[in-house]
Amino acid sequence: MASVQPLVRQLFSGDPRALARSISLVEEESTQGRAILKAIYPRTGRALVLGITGPPGAGKSSLVSRMVGGWRKRGEKVGIIAVDPSSAFSGGAILGDRIRMQEHCLDPGVFIRSMATRGHFGGVSRACRDVVDLLDAGGYRVIFIETVGVGQDEVEVVQIADLVLVVLPPGLGDDIQTIKAGILEIADLFVINKADREGADRLASELSAMLALSPDHGMAKSPILKTVATTGQGIPELMQAVDQGRRQKGRTASREEREKERSRERFLELFREGLYRRAREACLARDEVEAIAEDLATRRRDPYSAAEEVLGRVRFAEPRRRVPSNGRRR
Amino acid sequence: MASVQPLVRQLFSGDPRALARSISLVEEESTQGRAILKAIYPRTGRALVLGITGPPGAGKSSLVSRMVGGWRKRGEKVGIIAVDPSSAFSGGAILGDRIRMQEHCLDPGVFIRSMATRGHFGGVSRACRDVVDLLDAGGYRVIFIETVGVGQDEVEVVQIADLVLVVLPPGLGDDIQTIKAGILEIADLFVINKADREGADRLASELSAMLALSPDHGMAKSPILKTVATTGQGIPELMQAVDQGRRQKGRTASREEREKERSRERFLELFREGLYRRAREACLARDEVEAIAEDLATRRRDPYSAAEEVLGRVRFAEPRRRVPSNGRRR
Fold first, then answer.
1. How far is residue B320's CA from residue A283's CA, in Å, rounded to a whole number?
2. pTM of the full predicted structure?
3. Dist. CA B289–CA B283, nearest whole Å
4. Quick check: A254 contacting B, CB < 8 Å?
5. Structural domains of chain A in order of their starting residue, each with its CATH number
6. Predicted ipTM?
């Protein structure tokens, strides 16, 4: 395997082509991609990661585009990851949304990448975290993770972020009831975009009533802002709120806790995935899987017994009694 | 462990309390639950499973309620699984939707069960398949899987179904662009509900134009129906279309292929899950996970190397050179 050191050096120096190449190597799940991720890891964790989610039609892309403009004026390099879980089948990003971002397409200080889930469990959030690390190592100080819709996948993806902005359009009507369930709990900031439309004030008051009723999520303190992304109205206030949210999060002890929590999840995800891949390669021949599928389809065997039988071929060693890294003995 | 045989017998006899009890045992992931699933498996695969998906506000529940009425008139027992992935955090089903179903609440021939994802990868579709099997074994000949929204999770869940109905409301506007990506490919039937509202005809023609442009998905042949669930308009035609779709699917050779494909996925999912659970128990002490998380958060180690290290403790046996169940030797 060719050394990844030259590529990693170029990436550290901020070369966007090295970044694009690295992302491709990582997405292909190549050994080189993995080596790159290992090499850059110590230099990650510096960027501000902003999650943007909300229902289709809320104007998320236009809002991101405006905020990107704000950070570019401050001289920060900005990365955008557009996550599109709904394109599991068509495999492409949604053109319309990307077009709204085109004002930044030619700016070398802005890096835009679309990602689809391709139907893998846990696939998006893992892949997304890897790309965040690569952008971070490439000197992008602000990284947006923008989702297309508001499903479970989106919830998982935006939880990678340091701050989560939930964007809502006025006129949701009764549907705010269906949207609130998963998404409201993870919001650090609410943005009512298209606030020049009818219903913005009503939505704002419904939302704050709803937040006031939610006891222990700390959401009650999540600010509600109004913007009109198309005209730029409310954007300076939004930038200010993000800065403030960032400072607050940085101060609290919970930031460390959150980082540890995310590290734990990430490790376990990699462990689970690696385990499955190795087990399939080592003890499940392809034609055996086919034979099992045939048996199940015709009800000759049941899936639970079949899984248990194959699991019987795996041996697990005891965990080593290692001294934890902080030096304390157990 | 107490024998599950009496419970399984009650379940086979159609006792709804035995069914509810079995579902609980399965959802608790108990050994008994697993024994029940093994025992009933040979008696499954007989029900018609209908997946219902579409954006919030499309009127899915009202439509299901109408169709349930139709099957009840034919004397069939009907099961409804309401899947609500968005409630990963709040953990409850959405009340409003359930209320629309109340006309069937007191009918002993209708069994309604809500399920939330609880944030597990692959969790809903697996749990949902188990409940489908239990309903099937309990003599429910028609089983609805109704989702709340249209995310990636919903796509996976409804793919369990034999026939997938995508329900759309008129007036989606530009948002049809964002909805189409994931969901249109899996539709066997499109239902434009609330068809008495403005925009129903336009949606129908946009939809058929879109389908005509999609080459190899076979969607071009998916019928588009119009209904008004609140008044019952178009429901007989919908029932007819479902019957027809069912007959067509039953005839084709692809039905067997599909059943085999689903069996394969199910087995691999169980295998993957079991693998992870056993590996965590056997070779990852809780405090080791904490120590690793700490190391990652502070960038002392990287998650890839940490995962590889722990994976090194697992040993996989070669697959046995078994004779495939159809008796052919390789």
1. 8
2. 0.67
3. 10
4. no
5. 1-42 (no CATH), 44-251 (3.40.50.300), 258-311 (no CATH)
6. 0.71
